Amino acid sequence: MTLPHPDQDDALDRQIRAAAQVPFDDIAVTEAVLARVHAERRAAPALRRAGWTARVGPAAFAALLLATPFVVARLPPAGFDEDALLIELATGDPAALFGDANPGGVIE
Amino acid sequence: MPPAQESADAALLGAIAQGQDAALGRLVARHGPGLTAVAARYLGNPSDAEDVVQEAFLRVWQNAARFDPTRAKASTWIYAIAIRLCIDRLRKLKLRRILGLGGGPGADDLVADPAPATEQALAGRQELVLTRKALATLPDRQRLAILLAAVGGLDTHGIAETLDISPGAVEQLLVRARRTLRSLGLRAD
Description:
The structure holds 2 protein chains of 2 kinds. Chain A is mostly helical. Chain A has helices spanning 10-20, 26-56, 58-67, 69-73, 82-91, 94-98. Chain A is built from 6 helices and no strands. Chain B is mainly alpha-helical. The two termini of chain B are 24 Å apart. The longest helix of chain B is centred in the middle third of the chain and has 25 residues, at 74-98.
């Protein structure tokens, strides 16, 4: 239940509401937000690559990429449970760990 | 905010958490005007308000899965995100002003609407300008509290959660804000 504020003054509140109104374009705001969301999604694989390169070093990352391109293509974000990744590398069954759907996980 | 609207907001947040673009559009349409109005009057200009509101909805999108309806109302959660951004933005604007880099709160938009056509419209416009000026004189927290109450439609507990203060402190802010606004000539009927 919404209780009235102490000293509530509906006329004053209406006056404040009227004075506060500004033009608002909900479609433009939604489009701008979604554009940023989609831009971040596109940037995610590159960030993963950068994150893992920083974590294991560029040489090790390059070696990993050459040795197991399929696995690297499905790397989770840096900071993901390394044990799980090692299990995946050992078993060679990435789908078992990450599933078939790994949106954003593919390094482009 | 009525319970039906709160549950509709919670459902929209659930849909956003699943990546549904249309749900974001509906949430923006529901809360965007109120958030923008509060932000514009708190920050003192609409352009900063637009930036803050856009950023707030981006964070809503990114964090929708973390929303817990057992801990907060959806509207309070959304307002809290936006108000934190507003407070940060105002701090930066004030710092820029102190450093002489321009900007600053309350700098523009007291005269932003098209010219009124009639005497009645002129009177209404004068009242609008008076109200905006009066709001701009309030201390930041009083201004925010009265805007959240009058424009955002939040109750005392919602404002308390949004500002992270006690309900008693909110009541004090509201009483002082209304007293000041009346003393500046805003009607008190």
